[in-house]
Amino acid sequence: MLKGPKKITTDHRNYINSKNYLDTYVSIAGTDRSTNLFIKDYRVVAGCFPIDLKSKKILMIKHAKGGNFIIPRGGVEYDELRYKKEDSEKFQNFEKIPNAAYCFMEGGMRETWEEAGVKGKITKDLGHYYYCDSNNKNENYEAWIKRKKKMFPKSIEYYYQMEVDEVSEEWPEKGKRIQKWLELDQAVWHIVSNGRFSAFKALLKTDLVEDKNEFYKGYFESDLKEDAYKVFFRNKSYKKYSEEVSEACVVLVDIVLNKNRDKILVNENDKIKFQKVNMVDEPFIWRSSALFKWAKTKKIDEIKFISLQDPVGFVKKQNAEMVDSVDNLDLGTYEYAVTCCIYELDDKFEMNGRKWVNINDWRKNLDGIGKIVNGFLKKDDEDLAQEMEKMKI
């Protein structure tokens, strides 16, 4: 079980001085948002997944006036900046405190109590994610703090798994929120249809999901066979950015192998096809794939979903450098996040514009995306990292 959060630096001046590296709006008096924490122009958000492992349910909330159920989460306060121990040779905070990374459990637990009336213990760190779409602009900050509608700043969202000790009948926002325990598939429906893709990625890391790829497989098979998707994003389309990396455009690569795993499906020029992911196809990104659309149209039920790996690598922007040597907060360093869907298909099937080739022959002349795919297939992380440093799409 995780302990904390605690401020681990022995030099208290580091914490005081860290405020010089943080941006916050304190000039708008009398509003809750004026005390929210911003790191390098990103609003810091934290929330918890209150789970019951026995019943395999999640406690979620929605506004009393209606809408989707969501995970309790909210803005971290300025005085809730905390650190946790982290073994890394690189700095993992902008204050350059050695062996420390940001930790916002305290803010997540506070928001979970205020919004959902839940108390408990943090049992798992579910990672941090970015919320950034084409409508997020720097000038949104002051408008957002002044509560202008549909004006959202960029944010970094931290999620934690909570083992529930108490669900109170009285809590600070009872008049505005409704509590409810939901099954996993119900939780997925509400999270995805509301476009909460960061929360969806965190959900996959909870102890409620035993095997991520088996989870995805069920939705893939349903998508392939049913006329309509049972779960989908119910909102307007806008540019898709990665949740794992800030402002990186997501590209999808289909890796199709035959049953013997000695052949791979490639373009006529022996290249691996990739395409940008449409926001409306999230989080089941195979829906953006020409391969999936071909299989669905031709009713090829024999195609077997193996795994979805997101992401397998990133492509840096030209001349981009990591900001302040921080290796877990890139803040706009990368151009692309490369995601792979892996399938198995009998090589008797032919797709227009693509062909089957021997995988060893294909490996002899690789560039760009092909090298990422090959590195992923070989699980050669060191070569893969070196290749991504210099590659361009």
TrEMBL record:
<keyword id="KW-0378">Hydrolase</keyword>
<keyword id="KW-0479">Metal-binding</keyword>
<dbReference type="InterPro" id="IPR047198">
    <property type="entry name" value="DDP-like_NUDIX"/>
</dbReference>
<dbReference type="GO" id="GO:0005737">
    <property type="term" value="C:cytoplasm"/>
</dbReference>
<dbReference type="GO" id="GO:0005634">
    <property type="term" value="C:nucleus"/>
</dbReference>
<dbReference type="InterPro" id="IPR000086">
    <property type="entry name" value="NUDIX_hydrolase_dom"/>
</dbReference>
<dbReference type="GO" id="GO:0046872">
    <property type="term" value="F:metal ion binding"/>
</dbReference>
<keyword id="KW-0460">Magnesium</keyword>
<feature type="domain" description="Nudix hydrolase">
    <location>
        <begin position="41"/>
        <end position="204"/>
    </location>
</feature>
<dbReference type="GO" id="GO:0016462">
    <property type="term" value="F:pyrophosphatase activity"/>
</dbReference>
<protein>
    <recommendedName>
        <fullName>Nudix hydrolase domain-containing protein</fullName>
    </recommendedName>
</protein>
<dbReference type="InterPro" id="IPR015797">
    <property type="entry name" value="NUDIX_hydrolase-like_dom_sf"/>
</dbReference>
